[in-house]
Write a structure and sequence with these properties.
Elements lengths: L5 E4 L32 H4 L4 E4 L16 H16 L11 E4 L7 E4 L10 E4 L22 E7 L6 E3 L13 E4 L9 E4 L12 H14 L4 E6 L12 E5 L5 H4 L2 E3 L11 E6 L7 E5 L3 H17 L4 E6 L4 E6 L2 H6 L5 H4 L7 H5 L1 E4 L2 H5 L3 H9 L5 H15 L10 E3 L22 E2 L1
Parallel strand pairs: 2-6, 4-17
Antiparallel strand pairs: 1-5, 2-7, 3-4, 3-19, 6-8, 8-9, 9-11, 10-11, 10-15, 12-13, 12-18, 13-14, 14-16, 15-16
Helix pairs in contact: 3-5, 5-11
Length: 440
């Protein structure tokens, strides 16, 4: 007899229409076929702006092209603030108290006492990473178009461009969109929803992951990161999506030292470098560089595909404008379902998804916020990690699936994180003083 591991889940409300439970055909200007037909018919296409990114992010922009800061500052964050002004968010995240916890890694704690309220309970399976798309449950076709910032698609050329009113000829395929998260964790919190009308389950594929890396590259800021949670690793909506937001301090995982894994010369053609995290509570792999964005995306995507096909929950952090990717296999939800997590940790109501694992921890109770320490953060996140033996087994399988081979000629070498030395995430510009409460 099959035993299903389930826990009572209270999913974060990502859209103002999530609790309605209704479908499309609504006449309320949603993202369903009724209001945004496939192939972007002219009427629908005229309602959603289009940002078309350049095919090769490494190629310098032309003199008459969009400035580097346009995508993040003039478009994404400006439109996000417009949605704030229109009252589309469930609370003001900029009013949440935030502090950097004193310690070597500098975990970031936020007090958000309202984020866990007004959510509808559901049964959530934690023992199955791949689950079929269920149109009867909430999905992003039911989001209102007023929550969408713009379409995000490959322009195919040497320069990115933006069209406030894109004619139907600009897109002859199912659109990918960027929408607000109405329960934001941080400033500029958005969702990237690849090929929204294809109704893809929460499952990474090559095309969607390349899209996410392009978004990170277009943002061109070390403070803007993208994250992905698989089912079983605290994704709450089974419709393919990435999350992203802006936080102007380094994440603790970005500062953690790494140990380079030497690769055989025969597999170095892609230029991808692989390391293991050291002195961090959650074991993970770090993928960097790559001759092209696609080279890096292919290796990480193949790793994710192996994990999801073999039912290993995982989280992904896309950092450094898409040049550095952290991959975390995890087991917290399984431990929780089996009753192996201590009650005091469960009482914090922290669900360790990608942001928490990376070191940005959202706390729901003031006492937890005031008593937050690096010891407590480390203890919570250590429950997420695979054991050393299991992690090595998973790492070996990932290497086999991605065609990577460890070199027998060199020993693993320890390196400092780029953030600890010539960091692309400047340490001195932090607007969150260590141990101090601030209004962001």
């Amino acid at each position: 007899m099959e035993v299903k591991l389930t826990i009572k889940r209270v999913p974060t409300v990502l859209s103002n229409y999530q609790e309605e439970g209704g479908g499309g055909g609504c006449g309320r200007n949603c993202l369903g076929d009724c209001c945004l037909p496939a192939l972007c018919l002219p009427l629908a296409a005229s309602k959603l702006p289009l940002y078309a990114f350049k095919a090769n992010p490494k190629k310098p922009a032309q003199e008459d092209g969009l400035p580097t800061e346009f995508f993040l500052n003039s478009l994404l964050l400006a439109q996000w603030e417009d949605k704030v002004a229109r009252g589309l968010f469930r609370y003001d995240v900029t009013a949440c108290e935030t502090k950097v916890i004193p310690g070597e890694l500098g975990f970031v704690a936020q007090l958000n006492e309202g984020r866990h309220l007004k959510k509808r309970p559901t049964e959530f399976r934690v023992d199955c990473v791949l689950q079929p798309f269920d149109s009867a449950k909430f999905n992003f076709t039911k989001v209102g178009q007023e929550e969408v910032l713009f379409r995000f698609e490959n322009g195919g050329g040497d320069d990115s461009y933006f069209l406030a009113n894109a004619p139907s000829t600009e897109s002859d395929h199912v659109p990918s969109v960027v929408a607000i998260n109405v329960s934001p964790i941080e400033y500029g919190h958005v969702l990237l929803i690849p090929r929204v009308l294809d109704r893809l389950p929460q499952r990474i594929d090559h095309e969607s992951f390349v899209l996410a890396l392009h978004m990170a590259a277009e943002a061109a800021s070390p403070y803007f990161r993208l994250g992905y949670n698989s089912l079983g690793a605290f994704a709450t909506i089974n419709h393919l999506h990435f999350q992203a937001y802006y936080l102007s301090v380094p994440f603790p995982v970005e500062k953690a030292p790494t140990k380079k894994i030497p690769l055989a010369k025969s597999v170095l053609k892609s230029g991808v470098k692989v390391s293991k995290l050291r002195n961090f509570p959650v074991r993970g792999l770090v993928f960097e560089r790559g001759n092209t964005l696609k080279d890096l995306a292919d290796v990480v995507t193949n790793a994710c595909i192996w994990l999801q096909d073999n039912n290993v929950p995982f989280n992904v952090l896309i950092s450094d404008s898409g040049r550095r990717i952290f991959l975390f296999p995890q087991c917290y939800a399984e431990k929780q379902a089996l009753g192996e997590v201590s009650q005091d940790l469960l009482d914090t109501q922290v669900n360790p998804a990608v942001w928490e694992i990376s070191g940005h921890i959202v706390l729901k109770r003031r006492t937890d916020f005031e008593e937050a320490s690096e010891v407590l953060a480390w203890r919570l996140l250590a429950e997420v990690s695979l054991s050393e033996e299991r992690f090595e087994e998973v790492k070996d399988c990932i290497f086999q699936a991605t065609g990577l081979t460890e070199s027998d000629e060199e020993k693993e070498t320890t390196e400092e994180s780029p953030c600890a030395s010539s960091s692309s995430v400047p340490l001195a510009s932090s607007h969150i003083p260590e141990g101090c409460l601030v209004r962001q």
